[in-house]
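Human: If only I could read backbone structure tokens as easily as an amino acid sequence. Take your time, and here it is.
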Amino acid sequence: MTALTLSTAGASTLRADALVVGVAKGAKGPVLAPGAEAVDKAFDGKLATVLDALGAAGAEGEVTKLPAPDGLKVPVVVAVGLGSAPKKNEAYDAEALRRAAGSAARALTGTKKAGFALPVESAEDAGAIAEGALLGAYAFTAYQGGEDKLAPKGKKNGNGAKLPLAEVALLGAKPRDKAYKAAAERATALVEEINRARDLINTPPNDLYPESFAAVATAAGKEHGIKVQVLDEKALVKGGFGGLLGVGQGSDHGPRLVKLAYTHPKAEKTLALVGKGITYDSGGISLKPAGHNETMKCDMSGAAAVFAAVVAVARLGLRVNVTGWLALAENMPSGNATRPGDVLRMYSGKTVEVLNTDAEGRLVLADALTRASEENPDAIVDVATLTGAMVLALGNRTFGIMANDDAFRTSIHEIAEEVGEASWPMPLPADLRKGMDSPTADIANMGERMGGGLVAGLFLQEFVGEGITWAHLDIAGPAFHEGAPYGYTPKGGTGSAVRTLVGLAERTAAGDLG
């Protein structure tokens, strides 16, 4: 991953390949942000005028490259837009700093070292800039640039993509200050795990399936002192995990339930995180139509987020116990696959009539939620790319939050907003439960079409232990980005919800969650 340093150099003395400064939208044109003073001086005080002449307005994500004048030791100046300038005596928003740093880092692909002289008024600002730059510098290149045996000797295939920015030097921070050092260390650990989640999401399903995902989790557990338990098919049969087995029985790759347990000797609270891990979702017998299955390698994004969050919490040494549950299966059609109309007996003992095999995520999550409830945690949060209905409701960039406790739902929403992840609280209307009544089983896996995202939440709620605080994050929209990159968001897997889960663990560790 891109290296991060807190530089003691000034903007005029830093030796690097590029220097990033901020510019905002002002009432009469672009306005230079704090941190750009030395660069402006090198431009004889006319940097804003030059940017204006080039058409730069300071809009969010706007990037303008300029040849550096005498007085700087870098060849290129990069002016990145921060959006509207804050009011007098107000600071730049942390998310604006994150996005600007991410945009600049993406624009510097192929560069060895860049200095970032964006506004830093606190350790939190430094952390936000570091996060944005490191997230923006991400690239998934594992399957590019291999040796082509049919090509002339030494020639590489692939698309010739440049490597990401190699080093970020953060200016304006205080390298010897404990708060700034802690912010940099947190950003590095957090982003490394987010990028690990992104890598997993982007990995093709012929290489990432339940067994191989479990192996990745096991290796990470050994590295970071996390206890890992993997239940294979035999253990799932013995335990009666009918949801996981029913979804996975149509595939040659058997299902797995992976438990990751991080414990702190002084922890007073325990969080359980449950992730949907459908490593490929064909829809099963209820086969998805063409155009809807090409990106279904991303249907394990919830499990990737939970995995990354547990490892990040362990690396940060937070004073809270966190258990992650990865419900892993591949949903395929075959002669062995679950049919619409089949009835599954879940781990909880409840029976479920499967009306649609493409509503499979709720089945694997149900088993994992019941198992997680047995350990009586203080709260459970599940994360899943669960419903297209949630995308219709909230779009591609916002995830929905449902919960059996309004205060808990509000807290998660506040945390998500603080860390820069767009979310919105959603209800669990009791009247929608009746649509899942089944004449054959205890409950059906489908209900009313309208409000389908809420119906899925109501289904999951049935499998949460009595008296346990629970929330459900439907990340179907923001988990996988198919459009052009923006800010620190790449094309492909995004690592959605990792920051929210880590933020929840931090708030719980601090005793601020109740």
Summary: The chain has a mean pLDDT of 96.
